[in-house]
Amino acid sequence: MSNLLYPIFLKLDKVPILVVGGGNVALEKVSFMFKSSPNAKVTLIAPEIKEEILEYQGEYSLKIKKRKFENSDLEGFQALIVATEDKLLNYQIWQEAKRRNLVVNVADTPDLCDFYLGSIVTKGDLKIAISTNGKSPTFAKRFREILEEALPEEIEELLDNLQQFRNSLKGDFETKVKKLNELTASLIEN
Ligand SMILES: C[C@@]1(CC(=O)O)c2cc3[nH]c(cc4nc(cc5[nH]c(cc(n2)[C@H]1CCC(=O)O)[C@@](C)(CC(=O)O)[C@@H]5CCC(=O)O)C(CC(=O)O)=C4CCC(=O)O)c(CCC(=O)O)c3CC(=O)O
Ligand SMILES: NC(=O)C1=CN([C@@H]2O[C@H](COP(=O)(O)OP(=O)(O)OC[C@H]3O[C@@H](n4cnc5c(N)ncnc54)[C@H](O)[C@@H]3O)[C@@H](O)[C@H]2O)C=CC1
Question: For the Siroheme synthase central domain, which residue ranges apply (predicted)?
Answer without folding.
Answer: 124-149
